[in-house]
Specification:
The complex is a heterodimer of chains A (about 230) and B (about 375). Chain A is an all-alpha fold and about 230 residues long. Chain A has one domain. Chain A contains 9 helices and 1 strand. In chain A, helix 2 packs across helix 8, helix 3 packs across helix 5 and helix 5 packs across helix 8. Chain A starts with a helix and ends in an 8-residue tail after the last helix. With about 375 residues, chain B is mainly beta. Chain B has a 4-stranded antiparallel β-sheet, with no helix packed on it. The radius of gyration of chain B is 48 Å and the shape is rod-shaped. The termini of chain B are far apart. The chains are: A mainly alpha (about 230), B mainly beta (about 375). At the A-B interface, helix 2, helix 3, helix 6, strand 1 and helix 8 of A face strand 27 and helix 2 of B. Strand 1 of chain A pairs antiparallel with strand 27 of chain B.
Chain lengths: ~230, ~375
């Protein structure tokens, strides 16, 4: 029986307990799936903004529903692929430079365990999202064929004060919980790949830092969408 | 000689003398002739009244006794009485006789007869040529605007022509019509010679759709005549009026205030003066640009403008462009512009809510503590 509290607070002890055991993906997969579900919920909630945006068109409700479904599905698989598989792959590749041993399944499993703080952070940001949604003013598009109008509406929505505030808040919370996850990943990767603590730190901190910098950059420099600057 | 012989001689002498005196009278009357005939008017119109003045002269060496002078005709009506008093026309003297006549006849040339009866010497008959021509003055509109606009002063040029063989006098032109202001109210032309014409200009300002009447009053001799032409006026939009067009419209929202910017172009052919742009009733204009004064816009000229407003419960803003023409008439055109719809949302205050800050700080503290704790335990 795994101890989730140890995972969160004593990750070194948690992963030490897993040594010598065959990697089991059930719990990591459950954590990742839970995170994906939360991401899907958040994606669907955010897509309601686009439903409002397209409500001025004929058949706008259909477009909104389609966007909502696509956002939920995209967020679901995006979480699974980016946060779990891709992150595990990055850790695995970087750890190869340190001649890390251990198969990818173990890296994948330990990376999955480390997603638990990210899951908690996603729940918090999703709850905060629901408090911000009513405050966000959404431009309404009448003609989807007018690419310039669509782009302008997107930019206006992203520059909405409430939207900007939520983006900054969610970024801050995501970074905090990502740091927590990174802390777990360090011990997880060390155990999975047989690295020294220093090597594990490098393996995890480098990509996580790059990802955090990217998040900060995107948050404060704006979004690049639909060919716009 | 007895008394019978004396009486016979006297009678014989008288018989011999009387024929000699009548011949002399006829000889003297033959020296009387008509020297001049004057008609006023020179050419009559149907039903006109005028005068015919006949001047006669006695070219003989003896005076002539005239018993009666008159004028007569079957169609031309002579209204004045004949000269029935016996008068003498001395040797070498002239005398004029004036008759009032009227012409209740159609066009044509008539010859009323001037008749002078001499005492004991026959008479003088002289047909006087009197022309009746029922041609009135011709009035035509030389120029007028294609379309009259309510309250806008337009120029109308009128030509008055005299096709008659005689001149007419006292010509006065004046426009009338319900709801029409004309300047000047009338124009006095005076005499118009035969085959001549005269142009006059009026400034016409219609207030409603109506009929403009151009009246021409004139005199032919002592007879008053009038002509009128009617010009229907249907108010509409002038083809050359100033026409402000809005373009390059952009609406930006800042809080609850919209800022509408764009260009106003004068696509008409006349100058638009005192151009002012504001918003209509369905929205509320707010500072700093409740109204935007552009000023004068020449044809093909344009100017940028900006108006600010708030809009509650509407997704369209009527933009009113008012301007004045050169006569000071105010025109207003309204262009309805769609407001980019925005789902109403409570705008952010620009400050992070305390609760959110607290959550972030708590999370940071907890996570920092956990990380620190996880490493300390090693």
């Amino acid at each position: 029986m795994i101890n989730l509290l140890d995972l969160l607070v004593h990750p070194e002890r948690f992963f030490s307990a897993l040594e010598g055991k065959e990697p089991d993906l059930k719990i990591p997969a459950a954590i990742a799936l839970a995170g994906a579900v939360v991401a899907a919920v958040a994606g669907y909630a955010q897509s309601s903004l686009f439903s409002e945006m397209f409500s001025g068109m004929g058949g706008g409700a259909g477009v909104g529903a389609f966007i909502g479904i696509m956002a939920a599905v995209g967020a679901f698989f995006g979480f699974l692929v980016i946060w779990w598989v891709l992150m595990a792959g990055v850790f695995h590749v970087i750890s190869m430079m340190f001649k890390g041993s251990g198969n990818f399944t173990r890296t994948l499993a330990n990376t999955g365990y480390g997603l638990l703080p990210t899951l908690i952070g996603s729940v918090i940001t999703t709850l905060i999202l629901y408090t911000y949604l009513p405050r966000i003013a959404v431009p309404v598009i009448r003609n989807l064929q007018d690419a310039a109008a669509v782009q302008k509406a997107m930019q206006e929505m992203m520059l909405d004060p409430a939207m900007k505030e939520f983006t900054q808040v969610s970024m801050a919370i995501s970074i905090l919980f990502l740091v927590w996850s990174a802390n777990i990943w360090i011990f997880g990767v060390r155990q999975a790949r047989g690295l020294t603590l220093k090597q594990a730190c490098i393996t995890v901190i480098v990509p996580v830092t790059i990802f955090i910098l990217y998040m900060v950059y995107v948050t404060f420099s704006g979004f690049s969408m639909l060919g716009g600057a | 000689m007895n008394h019978r012989c004396v009486l016979f001689v006297i009678i014989a002498a008288m018989v011999a003398i009387i024929p000699v005196s009548a011949v002399e009278q006829q000889t003297a009357a033959a020296q009387v002739m008509v020297t001049n005939v004057t008609l006023d008017p020179l050419v009559f119109m149907t039903d006109d009244t005028g005068t015919v003045t006949v001047e006669v002269i006695n070219n003989g060496a003896q005076s002539v006794a005239i018993s009666r002078v008159t004028m007569y005709d079957e169609k031309i009506r002579v209204q004045s009485r004949a000269y029935d008093t016996t008068m003498y026309l001395g040797a070498g003297n002239r005398m004029t006789f004036t008759f009032t006549v009227s012409a209740p006849v159609p066009d044509g040339i008539y010859y009323p007869v001037f008749s002078m009866d001499f005492r004991d010497a026959g008479y003088l008959r002289y047909p006087v040529k009197l022309q009746v021509q029922d041609k009135p003055l011709k009035v035509s509109i030389l120029s007028k605007p294609d379309v009259f606009t309510g309250g806008k002063k337009e120029q109308v040029e009128v030509l008055v022509g005299n096709p008659r063989d005689n001149g007419v006098s006292g010509v006065i032109v004046y426009p009338t019509g319900e709801g029409i202001d004309a300047s000047p109210s009338s124009i006095f032309i005076g005499m118009i010679a035969p085959d001549q014409s005269q142009k006059v200009n009026f400034s016409i300002t219609p207030r409603q759709s109506t009929t403009l009447e151009i009246h021409v009053d004139y005199m032919n001799g002592i007879n008053s005549h009038a002509e009128v032409i009617r010009l229907p006026i249907d108010l509409g939009k002038s083809k050359i009026r100033a026409e402000p067009i809005l373009s390059n419209i952009q609406i930006e929202r800042s809080g609850n205030t919209y800022s509408l910017t764009g260009d106003v172009n004068n696509a008409g052919l006349e100058v638009a003066n005192a151009v002012v742009i504001t918003t209509g009733d369905s929205v509320v204009p707010v500072d700093p640009y409740r109204k935007y004064v552009v000023g004068t816009l020449q044809p093909d000229d344009f100017s940028a403008f900006e108006v600010t407003f708030t809009a509650e419960g509407t997704d369209r803003v009527p933009v009113e462009v008012s301007y004045k023409d050169n006569d000071g008439n105010l025109y207003t055109t309204t262009t309805t512009i769609d407001i980019p719809l925005t789902k109403p949302g409570a705008q952010g205050t620009g400050e992070f809510p305390i609760v959110i800050i607290a959550v972030i700080l708590v999370c940071a503290a907890v996570i920092g503590g956990i990380v620190w704790y996880s490493w300390r335990k090693r």
